[in-house]
Amino acid sequence: MRQDELNLRGIFPALVTPFDRQTEDLDEQAFRGLIRHVLPHVDGVVTSGTTGEFPYLTRAEQRRMVEIARNEVRDKLVIAGCGASGTAQALALAADAREAGADAVLVVTPYFLHPSDKGLYQHYYDIAAQVDIPIILYNIPQVVDAYLPRTVVEDLADLPNVVALKDSSGNLTYTMELLEYAGDRIDLLIGHDEVVVPALAGGVGGMILASAQVYPEVWQQVLQHVREGRLDEARALQRQVQKLSRIFCRHGGGVAVKAALNMMGVPVGRPRRPLKSVGGALIHETQAEIRLELEKLGRVAAADTPVAFPGGQLEDRFGDLELSAEAVRTNGLRVGTGAAGEGLNQVQIDLVAGGKDTPLGDAYAMQLTYPLHGREALTTILEPGLTVYPATLLLPTLPQQNLRQANMIYGPTQAALARAIADALESETIPTRAAEEEVMVALATVHPKALDRNALYKSVYDAARAAIAQAFGA
């Protein structure tokens, strides 16, 4: 493809590199499957970039990936990542990419040992002079630990085969400066998934994104909306995918994207060592968030997770505390219930309060001594070392299956319950004498898929205030 025919004003996914789960060898069949998965929705593909784990790939593997991509994409563009910290190595990769059929090469700023501005210019100049192929400069300070200086870009833009720059910094001030000084000579491509709409609105022409292999259709719509001046619609679409885009940018790049693709039934294996799928850059809680966001986007089927909120007579709901309805009544224990929120943020709080010398006091001590497995009771605190009064235990009604669920219970749920109790005591909904004489246990039913911490906090607070008001007759 001639340089003047190269159209970079589109969507180009920075493809992950699939590896065999056992041997960690390049999985060519999975790579072809990934390309076929994205091809109907993109304008080309990018091989062996940052998302593709290029530092862990051999020269032969990188060339082979270009050959496969060229064979699969037909008349669409193949952009080959040719990242290396040394000029000779980058030159060799660029020459390989050209021979293998790439339409352009993506060359990252030299890393680890940082050259001077003059050295940076010479690095790119040597590649441009010795390999007859369009070059895309690549700025990604998050991993290179240095920006490609604007002054260097401005000079490089005069070289005939330097055609574009991919900016993955997320720094829109830098992006706008490049548009001002070099935007009339080279294309600017946004490489940071979180700022696509503002970058396009500012004049960037296309995008190379990790997330473009997960929801490329969304970015195509965003690009079209911006071109047609429908910014409200573009912003709305960006917000739909903003949480996943943020995870991809901030939690391991290709690690998180591989997790998403595998969940979607696009097998790409694990990252190459020393990267880890779980327990390293990507913790279990983040994996759960990825899955839930994919469910919202319709990329994976939502698992049927019905939640049965406790019903029946309120006095019968405290069997886990070994408190019968009769014990509640005969010992004058106070009970109240409250519900708030909708959907995943629906919450129910069932509360029992009473004197320390009642069976409730014994049940309180028993929960601390012999906690229920997966439903461990937690002392309710406003902040570390500051317990609320009356002393209150928070007891989940549903077993906690993973760290994400535990975080929701032992995080916003605990904090909201504590604030509700403190506010009720201050307003004298809870009598002052009860602060020292009584204890409480709050049974909290929280949806296992709850993820919005702010919404969950509000639901728990409202439900707890309602339960407290009923229990204390306010």
List keywords for this structure.
single chain; 474 residues; alpha/beta; TIM Barrel; Ribosomal Protein S5, domain 2; 2 domains; 8-stranded parallel β-sheet; 5-stranded mixed β-sheet; 17 helices; 15 strands; 16% strand; elongated
Would you write up a description of this structure?
This protein has 17 helices and 15 strands. With 474 residues, the protein is an alpha/beta fold. Helix 2 runs parallel beside helix 3 (87-100) and helix 4 runs parallel beside helix 6. It is elongated. 46% of the residues are buried.
Number of domains: 2
* CATH level-1 class of the largest domain: Alpha Beta
Please compute the radius of gyration using only Cα atoms. Answer: 29 Å
Stated plainly, the CATH topology of the largest domain is called: TIM Barrel
Q: Total number of helical segments? A: 17
What is the terminal-to-terminal distance?
Answer: 77 Å
Mass-distribution shape:
elongated
Topology, element by element:
Elements: E1 11-13, H1 28-38, E2 44-47, H2 59-73, E3 77-81, H3 87-100, E4 104-108, H4 117-130, E5 135-139, H5 141-144, H6 150-156, E6 162-167, H7 172-182, E7 187-190, H8 196-202, E8 206-209, H9 216-227, H10 231-250, H11 254-263, H12 284-296, H13 325-330, E9 334-340, E10 347-355, H14 359-369, E11 378-379, E12 381-383, E13 386-387, E14 391-396, H15 403-426, H16 434-437, E15 438-446, H17 453-471
In short:
By secondary structure, the chain is α/β, with parallel strands linked by helices.
